[in-house]
Amino acid sequence: MFEFFGTIGGLIMTPLYYVVSAVMLAWHKVFSLFLDPNGGLSWLLSIVGLTLVIRAALIPLFVKQIKSSRNMALLQPQVRELQKKYKHDRERLAQETMKLYKEAGTNPFASCLPILLQMPIFFALFRMIDQAAKKGTAHGFLTEDLADQFGQSRLFGDAGTNEGIPISGTFLSGDGTAVMILAAVLVVAMTATTFLTQRQLMAKNMPPEALTGPYAQQQKMLLYVLPVVFAVGGVAFPIGVLMYWTTSNLWTMSQQFYVIRRNPAPGTPAAKAKAERDAEKAKRKGVSTGDVSLEKSAGGTAVVDDEAEAPRPRVQPQRQTKAQRSKQQGGGPRPTGGAKSVPTKSKKKR
């Protein structure tokens, strides 16, 4: 039975070994132009390069994740209405809720796609580092020499003299105080970036009505549970794997900050901040923005500003006759026939 599952696992992981090793070796060749190819820094930077390539490939899924989280937050008032309506029929509630999500074009499972797709890459890198360090086992495009070089590479030292920090070392490996300190720093960084990324989403891009209910409870659970999971599991991760995950978290946090800043959800603190920035930018450019309040830019209802001067409508000039123009000039209408009019004097009554 164990051999069967081992064979299945090998068939699944083998393509990933080739993908991971190909990207890493390409970056390693670049860094070897100005760094020691046997040193740990060139291999560690190759892992950072691998992370950037993987995250760049996942950009479409990340955008889909942000949109899904945004739509889920905006739909929470309607979800609560369904919960009140079908509170005694859980099956009907589930059907109506999924129907609502489908009509809105969102998927509650889309927010998990980036992290789920990264997990196989994570485990492939973990096994490559671990087996290269312990057995010199080569995977993918790594030869035995490259696998041994990869597994034995050290930061701030030479593999031949066993000085420095091995990138395969863990907090629990007992490879020295320097390894434990660096691993602890990376575990804290990985945990903190995970927490701050989720906190950023909840504090900046969730409307007030979405901060209560089951969806809010789910987000709060992710806010506190995920960092604890990474902190507990991180003490057993090699330094190379910790660097991968920390770099990935920094990418996620930066990308999420950019998306929320440029396209925030309506009615959120991020939308209000964007409206204020747009108003300030328009003010600097000399563009009048007083006719519509900031709520419109923030996704709310447009409110007319009483202090703003309403634009005057342009009145087209009307064509006038010659008699009308003469009357406006004070001359009065002229008699026809060319005769001059003579004013008559009234006779005095004797």
TrEMBL record:
All copies of domain Membrane insertase YidC/Oxa/ALB C-terminal, residue ranges: 43-260
Keyword Transmembrane helix: yes
UniProt keyword terms in alphabetical order: Cell membrane, Chaperone, Membrane, Protein transport, Transmembrane, Transmembrane helix, Transport
Membrane topology: Multi-pass membrane protein
Location (main, coarse): membrane
Biased composition (Polar residues): 317-328
Region (Disordered) location: 266-350
Protein name: Membrane protein insertase YidC
Function: Required for the insertion and/or proper folding and/or complex formation of integral membrane proteins into the membrane. Involved in integration of membrane proteins that insert both dependently and independently of the Sec translocase complex, as well as at least some lipoproteins. Aids folding of multispanning membrane proteins.
Family: Belongs to the OXA1/ALB3/YidC family. Type 1 subfamily.
Compartment annotation: Cell membrane; Membrane
Membrane-spanning residues: 7-28, 40-63, 108-129, 178-196, 221-245
Subunit-level organization: Interacts with the Sec translocase complex via SecD. Specifically interacts with transmembrane segments of nascent integral membrane proteins during membrane integration.
Xref: CDD domains: 5TM_YidC_Alb3 (cd20070)
